[in-house]
Every structure is written in C-alpha cells, then in structure tokens.
C-alpha cells in the first residue's frame, strides 16, 4: 500500500503549459485499471509538467489527501463523508456504476444471513466498499465480526474467514467463484436495494488549496475532462493492455469498462446522498453529509453556461 511516485506515467512527452512559478500541483491516481480511461490522455502525452502524479490504492490516497500531501485526487466517497469540511468535490468526475460493477465483491463461505457472528475481512485498500458492506449487513440486522486486512488473493485469507471484501484489480484477476460458494457484486446489491447508481470514488480538492489557487484547480479539472475524452476515444487501445495486465479476456475487460461510469450526474448524486443517509442511519458515520462542489471560476464567467449538477447539491 506504500504510495509510489509517478509509476503510472512511464512515457509520453509532458505538455508545458506554463505555471512555472509554482510548485507542481500534487495529483493522485488510483493504482487500479478501473481509472485507465480517465487517465488515458494524461498517460499519453497530455500531462503538463506542473502536475506531479502519485499512484496508490484508494485508502492510501485518502490518507495522503487528509495529511495534505496531495492537492487533488480521486478518493473513496466514504472518505469524503469523513473529510467534508476540508474537501470540495470536483464536478462531473467519479467512479460509479448502475448495477453490477465486477470489481467490488463480497466473497463468502456462507449465505448472507449466515454471516452473523462470523469473521468478515474487509480489504485495507478500501473505504467506500468497506462502508457499503457494513451498511448492507447492518441494515439487514446482521452483525459479523469485522476485521481489516490484506485481501488480494484467496490464499491471503485465514481458514476461519467467513467472508471477505475484495476490490479493484484483485477482484477481477482472481477466480473467486472457484474458491467461494457465494460471490456478491456490491454494485448489483445496491441497485437491487435502492434502484440507484452507486458512487465509489469522487475527485476532490483540498478546500484551502482551492481557495488559494482556484485557477490552478480549474486547469487540473479541465486536464481530467480532456484526458477522459481521450480515453473514451481510445478504448480499443486500452482494452488489450488492461486485459493483459489483469490476465482476463479482452471481452471481459470490455464488459468491465462498459459497467463503469466516470461522470457525476444528478442520478449519481442521488445515489451518493442515499448512501450517506444510509451510513448515518446505521451510525457508520457520525454526522450527515452535505455535498460541497468546487466552483469552477472559468465556467462561472461563461455567459449562458449551465452547470448540469448545480441544482442537485449544496455548494460551498
Ligand atoms: C469500482 C471500484 O471502486 C473503488 C472502490 C473504492 C473504495 O472502496 O474505497 C475507492 C475507489 C475505487 O477504486 C474498484 O475498486 O474496483
């Protein structure tokens, strides 16, 4: 889980877009293939020299943002709930799904209700999926013995493990169904229960950084939009590389990227709010969550511009 510096950007000529008088903006990247389409442009020559990229699992990025070691990063939506006073959400960026997501799995040796009193290991790389697991169990009145640990391979789990939460590349790579009788996709469970999309990750900026450098944050945001557009246009190049890295078929990989959403529209905001309300109702978080968005200074000045999610959320 140790964050590494810039391993995600081995090649590509960085673009020089100025801003040399500042320290680089410190930007995070999740070290899973789920974000490959969002970082495609940045990974292929669009990364300006004023962006310093750190690649790590979600829980490590959450901790680095909380420690002020990153300025802008994707973080677990459950971590946003915890740090809502310090962070602003960047508009129209997320990792979300509507139904099965394929890479967030609760694998179990027992039926769901049979997990009461049994050991459930939550991967230490997650905050959102861990909170969602707790919510799904608690709202059914099931009280397991929860622990946090390494969950990358089935062999990581001790024999007394009743169930385990696995996310990201490890969820896709390992044949979990061959080792566990039950494999639940948490995106599917959420949709069955609520009829809503689920938002696993948000891109956030530290509020103090946004207040000091709104134009730099705007520049980062537009780099992400541009990079994501490039990714959407080059899926045929992303698929074979991702399939190779994950050791899965290109067809399974295509289905995976088809399931993931990288926008943050009003339906996804509704799913996010429902998740936070559920966490609060089950006392998994200690206070209600408001959604505070970064106001892009570039967009505010544009005449006639409509922000798609402006009405869906409270702005800071
Ligand atoms: C869809 C996924 O969502 C992830 C789950 C997260 C979490 O549980 O905290 C955070 C970021 C995302 O990487 C995945 O990991 O595959």
TrEMBL record:
<dbReference type="InterPro" id="IPR003773">
    <property type="entry name" value="Menaquinone_biosynth"/>
</dbReference>
<comment type="similarity">
    <text>Belongs to the MqnA/MqnD family. MqnA subfamily.</text>
</comment>
<keyword id="KW-0456">Lyase</keyword>
<feature type="region of interest" description="Disordered">
    <location>
        <begin position="1"/>
        <end position="21"/>
    </location>
</feature>
<dbReference type="GO" id="GO:0016836">
    <property type="term" value="F:hydro-lyase activity"/>
</dbReference>
<dbReference type="InterPro" id="IPR030868">
    <property type="entry name" value="MqnA"/>
</dbReference>
<comment type="function">
    <text>Catalyzes the dehydration of chorismate into 3-[(1-carboxyvinyl)oxy]benzoate, a step in the biosynthesis of menaquinone (MK, vitamin K2).</text>
</comment>
<protein>
    <recommendedName>
        <fullName>Chorismate dehydratase</fullName>
        <ecNumber>4.2.1.151</ecNumber>
    </recommendedName>
</protein>
<comment type="pathway">
    <text>Quinol/quinone metabolism; menaquinone biosynthesis.</text>
</comment>
<dbReference type="GO" id="GO:0009234">
    <property type="term" value="P:menaquinone biosynthetic process"/>
</dbReference>
<keyword id="KW-0474">Menaquinone biosynthesis</keyword>
<dbReference type="Pfam" id="PF02621">
    <property type="entry name" value="VitK2_biosynth"/>
</dbReference>
């Amino acid at each position: 889980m140790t964050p590494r510096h810039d391993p995600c950007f081995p090649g590509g000529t960085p673009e020089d877009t100025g801003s040399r008088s500042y320290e680089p903006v410190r930007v995070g990247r999740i070290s899973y293939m789920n974000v490959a389409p969002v970082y495609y442009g940045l990974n292929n020559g669009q990364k300006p020299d004023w962006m310093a990229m750190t690649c790590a699992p979600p829980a490590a990025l959450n901790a680095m943002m909380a420690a002020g070691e990153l300025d802008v990063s994707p973080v677990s939506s459950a971590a946003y709930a915890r740090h809502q006073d310090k962070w602003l959400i960047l508009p129209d960026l997320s990792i979300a799904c509507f139904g099965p997501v394929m890479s967030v799995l609760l694998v179990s040796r027992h039926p769901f209700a049979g997990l009461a009193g049994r050991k459930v290991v939550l991967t230490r790389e997650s905050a959102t999926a861990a909170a969602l697991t707790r919510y799904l169990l608690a709202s059914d009145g099931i009280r397991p013995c929860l622990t946090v640990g390494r969950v990358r391979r089935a062999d990581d789990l001790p024999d007394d493990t009743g169930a385990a939460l696995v996310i990201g590349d490890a969820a896709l790579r390992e044949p979990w169904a061959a080792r566990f009788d039950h494999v639940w996709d948490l995106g599917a469970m959420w949709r069955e229960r609520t009829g809503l999309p689920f938002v696993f990750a948000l891109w956030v900026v530290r509020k103090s950084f946004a207040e000091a450098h709104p134009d730099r944050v705007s520049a980062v945001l537009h780099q992400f939009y541009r990079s994501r557009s490039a990714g959407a246009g080059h899926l045929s190049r992303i698929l074979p590389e991702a399939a190779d890295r994950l050791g899965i078929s290109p067809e399974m990989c295509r289905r995976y990227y088809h399931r993931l959403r990288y926008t943050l529209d009003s339906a996804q905001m509704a799913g996010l709010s429902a998740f936070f309300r559920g966490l609060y109702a089950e006392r998994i978080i200690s206070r209600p969550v408001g959604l505070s968005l970064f106001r892009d200074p570039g967009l505010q000045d544009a005449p006639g511009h409509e922000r798609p999610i402006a009405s869906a959320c409270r702005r800071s």
